Amino acid sequence: PQGPEEAKAFINAFLKHSMPKMKDEAIQDVLSRKAVVLEHYSKKKAKQKRKKPKGFTAKQRRELRLFEIKPEQQRYTLFLPLHELWKQYIRDLCHGLKPDAQPYMVQGKLLKADLHGAIVTVTKSRCPSYVGITGIILQEFKHVFKIITKDDKLKVVPKLHNVFSLEIDGFISYIYGSKFQLRASERSAKKFKLKGTIDL
């Protein structure tokens, strides 16, 4: 068994080791109250930040030609099933396109709908060579539509200064490209306002 002096020395050494931030006078003050609370200092582990997987940059996408449609795939008949899927998508979106449907309601739905697979026709244009182009929209970008025509030609038609017509189940809608220069993802969240006059 230890004597009182040895026990006291052991306690002082133990407290000094357990509470390194406290001075000897503070430790003696704690001992005089006969209540000792040992502090536990734990090393905080640095949180590892999860690295988000980075996608391709715009330059890499261009180099890899991710958005290019190969010539052997540029066939109108190949995309007719896509058009049928698009028609069913619009019917579901507009609750059936019934004859008594409100035109403004249908128009509002079409403004935010995905147009990939829709058959459109250029009805007005500042460039006469674009007028009359009809085909299925294969790709929609911010400023252009890529359209495949019935004679298997891929046309790149700018939205600016062009008016497109879109027909489904007898309902004809007109798209003013100058006011439609948005990506499909941006357009779905945009609030469109009614405007009295729209110029090319």
TrEMBL record:
Broad class of where this protein is predominantly found: nucleus
UniProt KW Transcription regulation keyword: no
Which Pfam families does this entry report, sorted A to Z?
RNase_P-MRP_p29
Phosphoprotein keyword on record: yes
- Residue spans crossing the bilayer: none
Its Gene Ontology molecular function terms?
Answer: ribonuclease P RNA binding
Among the entry's GO cellular component annotations, what is one? ribonuclease MRP complex
InterPro entries listed in its UniProt record: RNase_P/MRP_Rpp29-subunit, RNase_P/MRP_Rpp29_sf, Rof/RNase_P-like, Rpp29/RNP1
Q: Name one GO biological process term.
A: rRNA processing
Q: Which UniProt keywords apply?
A: Nucleus, Phosphoprotein, tRNA processing
Domain of life, per the record?
A: Eukaryota
Q: Where in the cell is it found?
A: Nucleus, Nucleolus
- UniProt family annotation: Belongs to the eukaryotic/archaeal RNase P protein component 1 family.
How does the record describe its quaternary structure? Component of nuclear RNase P and RNase MRP ribonucleoproteins. RNase P consists of a catalytic RNA moiety and 10 different protein chains; POP1, POP4, POP5, POP7, RPP14, RPP21, RPP25, RPP30, RPP38 and RPP40. Within the RNase P complex, POP1, POP7 and RPP25 form the 'finger' subcomplex, POP5, RPP14, RPP40 and homodimeric RPP30 form the 'palm' subcomplex, and RPP21, POP4 and RPP38 form the 'wrist' subcomplex. All subunits of the RNase P complex interact with the catalytic RNA. Several subunits of RNase P are also part of the RNase MRP complex.
Give the protein's function: Component of ribonuclease P, a ribonucleoprotein complex that generates mature tRNA molecules by cleaving their 5'-ends.
Q: What is this protein called?
A: Ribonuclease P protein subunit p29
The species is Semnornis frantzii
Task: Tell me the gene name.
Answer: Pop4
